[in-house]
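Q: What residues go here?
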C-alpha cells in the first residue's frame, strides 16, 4: 500500500511564503507524474503544479505562475511546493498526487493520478 503524506501547511499573512513537502516510498524511482492540487471550500479541486519526472518538464496553473515552484529532491525522495507572494485566494487544502505514467502530468491537469495524500491546509489571511 503506497502512502503519500503532505506537510508544511499553516496560517500565513498575504504576501508571505510557505513550503509544502510530500513524501512517499519510491516517489522518485516509481512515479513519473507527481503533482500538487488544491481545493478551496465550496470549490472544485484544481491543479497547481506537476512534474513529468521522465521528461523533466513542469506545468503550472496560470494563477500561481511566477509565485509557486515545484521541485523534487531525489536524495530525500521528497516533492516540494515553494509558495511565495501568497494571496487569500491561495487558501485551501493542498494535496500531493503521484502516478507511474509520466503523461498524467498535463498542462490542464486533467490526468488521473493513482495515489493521493490526505492533504495539508493552507490559510492565507491577515
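A:
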Amino acid at each position: 500500500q503506497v502512502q503519500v503524506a503532505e506537510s508544511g501547511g499553516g496560517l500565513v499573512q498575504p504576501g508571505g511564503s510557505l513550503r509544502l513537502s510530500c513524501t512517499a516510498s519510491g516517489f522518485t524511482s516509481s512515479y513519473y507524474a507527481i503533482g500538487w492540487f488544491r481545493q478551496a471550500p465550496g470549490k472544485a479541486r484544481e491543479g497547481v503544479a506537476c512534474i513529468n519526472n521522465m521528461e523533466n518538464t513542469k506545468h503550472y496553473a496560470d494563477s500561481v505562475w511566477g509565485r509557486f515552484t515545484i521541485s523534487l529532491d531525489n536524495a530525500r525522495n521528497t516533492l516540494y511546493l515553494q509558495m511565495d507572494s501568497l494571496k487569500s485566494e491561495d487558501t485551501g487544502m493542498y494535496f500531493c498526487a503521484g502516478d507511474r505514467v509520466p503523461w498524467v502530468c498535463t498542462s490542464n491537469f486533467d490526468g488521473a493520478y493513482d495515489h493521493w495524500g490526505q492533504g495539508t491546509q493552507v490559510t492565507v489571511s491577515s
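A: Context that may help when evaluating the design: The two ends are 40 Å apart (CA to CA). The chain has one helix and eleven strands.
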